[in-house]
Structure formats: C-alpha cells, structure tokens
Design brief:
Blueprint: H1 2-17, H2 19-22, E1 34-35, E2 42-43, E3 51-55, H3 56-61, E4 77-81, E5 86-90, E6 105-109, E7 112-114, E8 127-134, H4 138-141, E9 148-154, E10 162-170, E11 175-185, E12 190-201, E13 206-208, E14 213-215, E15 217-230, E16 235-249, E17 253-257, H5 263-268, E18 278-279, E19 294-311, E20 314-332, E21 341-360, E22 366-387, E23 399-421, E24 426-449, H6 459-469, E25 474-476, E26 479-496, E27 499-510, E28 513-514, H7 530-541, E29 542-543, E30 546-558, E31 563-582, E32 588-610, E33 613-628, H8 636-642, H9 647-652, E34 669-681, E35 684-695, E36 698-699, E37 709-710, E38 713-724, E39 729-736, E40 744-749, E41 757-761, E42 766-774
Parallel strand pairs: 6-9, 13-18
Antiparallel strand pairs: 1-2, 3-8, 4-5, 6-7, 8-9, 10-11, 10-42, 11-12, 12-15, 13-14, 15-16, 16-19, 17-41, 19-20, 20-21, 21-22, 22-23, 23-24, 24-25, 24-26, 26-27, 27-30, 28-29, 30-31, 31-32, 32-33, 33-34, 34-35, 35-38, 36-37, 38-39, 39-42, 40-41
C-alpha cells in the first residue's frame, strides 16, 4: 500500500511540477473536458463539484464497456454484481438490493432518470460522455442521489457523415463483441444517428460441473435511433429511442467457504469451498431443474425527446420520456448441488417523466435557473420460492412461497438555483428543491403445496412452512407520502484562469418505501388483536427516507494546458441509512440504520509532458463509520451462539452492534495510475495504454462477517494498438486483469447452509483482439 501511495502521489506531484515547463510546449495540450452536471455546459475545471468525467470514445478505446470495469479507476466509486442486482457504491453508500428499493446513486441518461439496476444494463451504448458526480445531488438531479449521480450523455447526430464499427473476440471466456454507429445529415436542418451493441459470451469464468457448463453465458444486444432537428434559429429538438434484449444463463457464483452441519454433505457432492473458478450448482429433480443454475431473459425500452428553445428571457429546456423494462429470472437459490431451493421472479416496470426548466438570462450579476419535474411509475413483481426440503430430511412435501408486490408512485418537484457574481473572481451559488411523492402498494404472501398447488392442509404443516420459508400468509396495502427539501450552496473563487477553489454544502434524500420481500413475522403475538397485528406488519414493511448532508472543499488547477489536478476533501453525515440484511435463510430484512458519517478525499490528475505521452493518477480515501447501528444483521456465528431461529430475530435483539464499524463494499483506499504512449512510426502509429488499479480490503456482506472479507488487490490492464496515423482502422490487443487475480465483490451466507458462504466472482484475466474501422 505504501508503495502504491508513493507511486500515485509522485505522479500527482509531477502534474503540479509540470506547470513550469508547460508554457514552452504547444503540441502537448490536454483536451478540455466538457460536463453538464450543473444543467449547463462548462469545462470540468469550472464546476465546483467532485467529478470524474470521460469521453465515450476514450472508454471504448480502452476496452471499457460496463460499469464494473471502472471499479478502482475512479476515486471512491465501485460497481459490483450480486445474484439480485448490481450494487453501486459511492463514498461508502450502497444501493438497496430488494426489488422495490431505489438506487442510492442515481443514473441519468440525457437527463432521463434510471433508478433501477436493469435500466442501466446498456448505459454505455453509443455513449458521448460519462460524468461520475460524487456527493448528494438533490437540488438539480432530484431524489435518490444521496451517494451521487452518474450523468451520461449519448453521442449526438452529426452534420457531417461519420461512422465506426468495432468487432472483437475475447479468447479466455469466448466473448464476441460488435458495436458501432453511423451518423449524418438528412437535410440542412435534420441530422440522424444509429448505434448498436452486441455481446455474446459462450464460456464464462466459473466452471459449473453440475451442468458441465461455464457460467455466465449470455447473448445481449441493444440499438439506438436518434435525430436532431433545427426547428428554427432558436429552437432545437433531440429525440431518441433505445431497445435492448438480454438472455443470460449461469451466474459467476462460487461457494467460497464450507462450514456447519451441511459441510460434509456438500463436500461429498463435489463442492470444494475455494475461489478457484469451480462450482457445483443446480437441481436434478424435474420439479426444480432449470437446465442451468441461473436464467434471466428480458428487455428494456426508452423513448425521450428534448426541446431547447432560446427566448429573450433565457433558454427553456423540456425533457419528456418513457422508460421501462421486463424480465423473467430464475435461479438455484441454495447455490449448491442440493435439490432444495429455487427462486423465480417476473418483474415489469414502467416510468413516465417530464422536466421543464429555464436558465434565465443574467439579471445584473445574478444567473437564475428554475424548473419543475413530474414522474409516475408502476412496478409489478411476482416471485415464487420453491422449497424441496426432503433431501434435508423434512417429512413434508415441497412447498411454494408466492409473493406479489405492486407499487404505483407519483412524484412532483419544483426547483431553483441562482449564481451571483460577488466580484469578477468570486461567485456564490444556492439552490433549493421541494419534492412530494406518494406511493401506494399491494404486498401479498401465500404458502401452498408446490406439488398440487393447493393450500397447506394442517396447522402443523403451515408452521413447518413458516419455519423453512420464513413467511406468514398475509395481504397488505401500505401507502406513504413524503415531502422533502433538498438544498445546495457553494462559494467559488477563481484567482486566475488556471485555478479555482470552492467550498460547498448539500443535502439530499433517498426515498422511503416498502420491503417487497417482507414475508411476515410468524403470526400474531400473544394478546395481539387482528387489527393490531395488521398495523404492526404495516409498520414493519415500511422503511424511512435516508438523508445525507455533505460538506466539501476542493480545488481545480491547470498548469499551462498540459497538466491538471483536481482535489476534494469531504465530510458527509447520513441519517436513517437504508439497509437490506440477509437473514441466513430465504429472506431479507429491510430497514434503517440510525446514523453514519463518511469523510475522505479524492485526487485525480493528468500530465502530458510531451505530445506522445500522457500520465494520469487518481487517489480515493474514505473513512466510513456507523455512528449508531445497534440492530445490524447478525453473522451465522452470532445466530448460532444465541440460539436464534433466524437472522431477523437476532437482528431485532441487537446482537450485532456495528456502531463504530464500516459499511460493506467500502475499501478505505482506491489508487489508480495510468500511462498512455502514442508513437508515430512512418504512416502508422503504435499505442500502448496501461492502467494499474489498487483496491483496499473490504467486506462483501452487510453484517461484516469476517468470512466475507475481500483482501486488497492490484489489477493491471493493458492495451496495445496499431493502425494508420489517420486512424482509418485500429487493431487492438486488450488485456484486462493481466495477472489473473481471483476476487469477489459481494458475498453472503449460503441459504439454509449455516456456516457456508458464497460470493459473486469478478471476471479474471481477459485477452481480446479487436478491430475498429472508422469511415
């Protein structure tokens, strides 16, 4: 770690020192990075926010085509995969895993909110730019941005004919990727663009001997059509339509540790309990067998239009959009070779939104902005859990737990912001947003005989089903209404054209809601009436909004055009943190931790000492601590020691007090160092792009179980490309995770196998050959 810090720090210091010689060099100027996170166009150096911004063509050139590839390269930002959804973490705050929850880090594509993980599967499709905006962003972006926001701009149609196609093959896992675009004018006022992306993986990185297949295997494709029209000299209309389909078989899951009563049985069935790229997962009975350990099939659609209209009082922008998806997912939920559990989910989501805002022309020294936002969404999720406990010695037939969750949300908000020029070098900005959201839901649980589909015939059998499936039949109709205010304020000082400094504060919320996976509490308590029992369940199914208040100081520095440094120091207070705790059986408990605080720093810099060479470095440090979290989810050792029937009861008893501890998937240090060298050789040029990324140790589970600790690791990526200097074509060799490090991001208890643990394994070394043709 010390070596890494010295290396990265030296690179950043070199950036600082580069300013002395920069003025003497004219051919090695860094490109200015343009961002739109403030709802206006500005350079990265002008924005008083902690932002990492990169062009889409840069990501494509580096072979980056998914969010997971960015982990370690961006300070205090990680994206990982779990069996349920992607987990986005920024400054120590993670996304909610249960079906009804919103992301704590929101994604926006062309201003359209994508709050659910499935919506962002193809966020890199024909991307123009990516902005990772850290810290609460409630004023301009809205709710559900307590961790930050991912602001993505699609590539726009061009008035000049242009196009590109890229085809590559990865040799280690057998992945084929084809992507490209074509754009050009239809008339003087109309421009169009089409983009596409296709991925097929035949041989994943975990060999599942149960089905004699490597997993994951998938076929994904996405397409985009967009058009931009000049309606008049002062009005412009942009519209696009996206569609995607995905079909996945198998998950990169391994049981990484064996323990408890079932360990001998699992060992005898071929489970080794190591991170070695081997798994034995599946079901053999016709009742549970899927033909694969995991299957998921679905698609997404998004249609949006944006109107920009310059008027005498300012520029008016209106964005109207529809975004939706549907999928069917099923998997072997015991994660091993036992014919015990299968989970099946059918989910559909639709969202309609409208934003209209005006950036007023300057009124003296004041530049105001005001807007309104409307959103309506509908979520439908049906889930089945089939339990065949005969292999475990249970004297009753297979059981089925059916859960239905339906939720309608209606949200409206008004917001405003104003920037005041206090002097020619000092400006102050303040903003406010008021939002109101109403949610109405239906949540239903039934238990049946999975073989016949009929009801459970006896109270004893019902009690056994409750013990195995942790569920009590019920029908609930929860509703909520939230009114919240987000605000932001900053002071920016620009003493020279190449230096600016800022201080800022902001407050934002993550909307409350209902636990779609709430299964009841074992029935009414002694002396509890039916109405009291119903009211208690309505309280238990709900969780409160999460709140974040941040304070930040930062600097944006440029040195003669060929070097730059961005720095930020932050402190964030979180209240009512939303948590999702696995019980160790077959369910999750969703609620609120009391409070936490996070503090740290982010540094990133670039230096181009000569035209052929560019160096970059980034450092992220975070000290995250729960200041009050007495009812955290329990480890299996704590559950066993206390004799609790399940993790929910242990959590309620306050056994695992995580006050003073960190959060899951929160590495203390992330360090990145990169070198890009472009060498002309006659009419051709050679490109070498190397990146080394260090990620500190972290826990993969919410309960911070020691068995889920991922050790610190360094991963190296390398790209070597050759092609003509006019870049008509480029042939690249792309190697990611050069030293073949075996790591995981999320981990947890194996359902019903107390003492054993599983993890979602990250992709090991990949070696791809790719040809890009530009025309």
């Amino acid at each position: 770690m010390r070596l890494w810090l010295r290396t990265a720090s030296s690179a950043v210091l070199a950036t600082l020192c580069a300013g002395g010689s920069a003025l003497a060099q004219d051919n090695n100027t860094l490109d200015q990075v343009i961002v739109t996170a403030t709802k206006s166009t500005a350079t990265l150096q002008e924005v008083p926010l902690s932002i990492t911004a990169v062009k889409g063509e840069t990501l494509q050139a580096q072979g980056v085509n998914r969010f997971q590839d960015l982990t370690g390269t961006i300070p205090n930002f990680t994206v990982s995969q779990s069996p349920i959804s992607d987990v986005i973490s920024m400054r120590g705050i993670n996304s909610d895993l249960q079906a009804a929850g919103e992301q704590a880090v929101a994604t926006f594509v062309d201003g359209v909110y994508r709050g659910r993980g499935v919506q962002s599967r193809f966020a890199f499709l024909d991307m123009g730019s990516l902005e990772v905006v850290r810290g609460p962003q409630g004023t301009l972006f809205g709710k559900n941005t307590v961790g930050g926001a991912l602001n993505i701009n699609s590539a726009r149609p061009s008035a000049v004919f242009d196009g590109s196609i890229s085809a590559g093959y990865e040799f280690e896992q057998g992945e084929t990727e084809v992507l490209g675009f074509i754009t050009g004018p239809v008339s003087d006022r109309l421009r169009v663009r089409a983009g596409f992306q296709y991925n097929e993986m035949k041989d994943g990185w975990v060999d599942n001997s149960y089905y004699d297949e490597a997993q994951p295997r998938y076929t994904n494709w996405a397409g985009r059509l967009s058009a931009e029209a000049d309606l008049s000299a002062n009005a412009k209309l942009f519209a696009r339509y996206d569609h995607s389909d995905f079909d996945t078989k198998g998950n990169p899951i391994e049981i990484i540790h064996l323990g408890g009563a079932l360990a001998p049985l699992l060992t005898s069935l071929g489970v080794d309990g190591d991170i070695d790229g081997k798994a034995r997962q599946g079901n053999s009975s016709p009742f549970l067998d899927l033909g694969s350990a995991f299957v998921m099939d679905g698609g997404t659609d998004e249609l949006m239009a944006r109107l920009d209209w310059r008027t005498p009082i300012g520029e008016w922008t209106t964005i109207a959009a529809y975004s939706g998806y549907d999928f069917l997912r099923a998997f072997d939920a015991d994660l091993g070779p036992l014919d015990v559990l299968q989970v099946k989910q059918d989910e559909k989501y639709e969202q309609y939104s409208l934003e209209s805002r005006i950036s007023f022309a300057a009124i003296g020294k004041v530049r105001p902005l005001a807007g309104v936002y409307l959103q309506q969404s509908q979520l439908d999720n049906d889930g089945w859990t089939y339990a065949n406990t005969v292999p475990l010695g249970a004297p009753f037939p297979p059981l089925n737990r059916f859960g239905r969750f339906q939720q309608e949300s209606k949200l409206w908000a008004i917001f405003g912001q104003a920037t005041i020029d206090l002097t020619d070098k000092l400006e102050a900005t303040g903003g406010l947003r008021y939002a109101s959201e109403k949610k109405d839901a239906l949540q239903e649980i039934t238990l049946t005989n999975a073989t016949t589909g009929g009801p459970l015939p006896a109270p004893v059998l019902a009690a056994l089903a409750n013990a195995v499936l942790e569920a009590t039949p019920h029908v609930l109709r929860p509703s909520s209404k939230e009114n919240d205010t987000s605000w932001s304020a900053n002071l920016r000082w620009k003493p020279t054209d190449e230096a600016s400094f800022y201080v800022s504060a902001a407050h934002s919320t993550l909307g409350g809601g209902f636990n779609a996976a709430y299964f009841g509490t074992g029935g009414a308590r002694p002396g509890e009436t039916a109405d009291q029992y119903q009211q208690r369940m309505l309280r238990e199914i709900a969780y409160r909004p999460e709140k974040a208040t941040s304070y930040e100081i930062g600097a944006k520095l440029r040195f003669g055009g060929n070097a730059e440094l961005n720095a930020a120091i932050f402190h964030v207070n979180y209240d009512d943190i939303q948590t999702s705790q696995f019980t160790g059986g077959t369910s999750y408990v969703v609620g609120n931790a009391a409070a936490a605080r996070a503090r740290g720093l982010e540094l990133d810099g670039r230096w181009r000492p000569v035209d052929e060479l560019t160096l970059n470095a980034a450092i992220g440090y975070i000290d995250f601590e729960y200041t009050d979290y007495k009812n955290a989810g329990c480890t299996v050792a704590q559950i066993a020691a206390g004799g609790y029937a399940n993790g929910a009861l242990c959590s309620a008893a306050g056994v695992n007090d995580l006050t003073g501890r960190t959060n899951q998937i929160t590495p203390e240090w992330t360090v990145s160092f990169g070198v890009r060298w472009v060498k002309p050789i006659g009419d051709y040029q050679l490109t070498v792009d190397g990146q080394a990324n260090y990620v500190d140790q972290f826990y993969g589970a919410q309960d911070l179980d020691p068995q889920t600790l991922q050790k610190a690791v360094t991963k190296v990526n390398l790209l070597v490309g050759v092609g003509p200097r006019d870049r008509d074509w480029v042939l690249d060799l792309v190697v990611r995770n050069l030293t073949n490090e075996r790591t995981f991001q999320t981990a947890n208890d194996v359902p019903l196998a107390t003492g054993s643990y599983f993890a979602t394994i990250e992709r090991p070394r990949s070696v791809a050959l790719r040809l890009r043709v530009n025309f």
